Amino acid sequence: MAGGQAGQGTGDEECYRDDGLLDRLAAELPEGRAGLSRIWAVLPRARLVGGVVRDLIAGRVVSDLDLATPEAPDRVIAALAGAGIKVVPTGLAHGTVTAVIAGRPYEITTLRRDERTDGRHAVVAWTDDWREDAARRDFTINAMSCGCDGVVHDYFGGRADVRTGHVRFVGDAATRIHEDALRILRFFRFHARYGRGEPDGAAMAAIAALADGLARLSVERVWSELRRILAGPALMETLALMERSGVLARLLPEGTDRPALDRLLATGAPADAILRLGVLAPGDAGGLAARLRLSRAEAVALSSVRAAPVPDPAADDDARRRLLADEPAEILVRRSWVGQAARLGRPSADWDELRQDLTARPRPVFPLAGRDLLAAGIPPGPRVGQALAELRAWWMAGGCRARRQACLARLGEGAADRTAGPAPG
């Protein structure tokens, strides 16, 4: 049972047994619970840590099963390998190895303490002190651990904060942010998912004072967090908090159009980070993609969000085929949400039917290539490309229905026209 009542940041450990917690895990992830039993058989002092404990207490779906242990990484590797468990040294510099059991990964990290931090990276050393390891975590709700005996160790009042929807830093908020400025964005992401009501005042004050620290972070880390925020819940409320603290302007100095994003969300559009970014940040898509160092696929998708043409529910069968001939369905669907937001700003069965139809249709493919024109006798050179473009335009005008033989016949008609010369005067 509880070994003491956790105070608000006092560091008093609340230690209580919760057999139902591991029972819930076994019911939700039976194969995961079986894998944990194998790990605990050789590493009995290891504990589940972070998100899995938080989500089990919150009654949310569990995905990752991360553990921590006082054993050093080399001893962890030896123990797992000795038990016939596949082990991959995924992050030895940070004390992390990954056990793989029945295809499921289990990250196991040696307890750590920070030796030195600079706002971006930390130099760590191993420790066997569980509270010391918990103290270096970002938020109280992420600082809990649970052993194989079902005992939950809560050093900073995380359970109470989960239940009340209070997202707050472990200890002093400014200290945590000085250690890693990315925690600014993590705060907004976690508040969106687990917070209720007004955000923690100490956290918001520290964020507003230290928001300049975001400039020292790698763009890749910033985009990784921003993408999760954009795809997450309570987005409009979160963006308002980010604007209030001065963070949003630092991330998107080009400007934002939050009303347009609000209209997009009102349509029921999916939680697509690129779609939402394209509507929120209406400036130069190419410049934004370069600054955030988006992947090539992400950059293409962002540029396509606001491009033309925008699919219209009134488009007939041929028009829809022409759209698909020029753009993949995924791009057209994204663009349709933008059109629906601009024209309606609410759900619509007609727009839903359009997207379903575009997704279900096979994409029309022009049946000829340059080699077909060469085989038909058109000499190599610019004329091949010109004739191919003319032929494709004819194919598009007909609703992209003409098959290969019809296109070849049309090519032959064109060749006859070209060789006939002008009519006699």
Automatic annotation (TrEMBL):
Domain Poly A polymerase head: 46-168
Keyword RNA-binding attributed: yes
Molecular function per GO: metal ion binding; nucleotide binding; nucleotidyltransferase activity; tRNA binding
Cofactor(s) listed: Mg(2+)
Pfam families recorded: PolyA_pol, PolyA_pol_RNAbd
tRNA nucleotidyltransferase/poly(A) polymerase RNA and SrmB- binding domain: residues covered: 203-255
Record-level GO BP terms: tRNA processing
Matching InterPro entries: Bact_CCA-adding_enz_type3_sf (IPR050264), NT_sf (IPR043519), PolA_pol_head_dom (IPR002646), PolyA_RNA-bd (IPR032828)
Key words, A-Z: Magnesium, Metal-binding, Nucleotide-binding, Nucleotidyltransferase, RNA-binding, Transferase, tRNA processing
Recorded family membership: Belongs to the tRNA nucleotidyltransferase/poly(A) polymerase family.
Protein name: CCA tRNA nucleotidyltransferase
Species in which this protein is naturally found: Gluconacetobacter tumulisoli
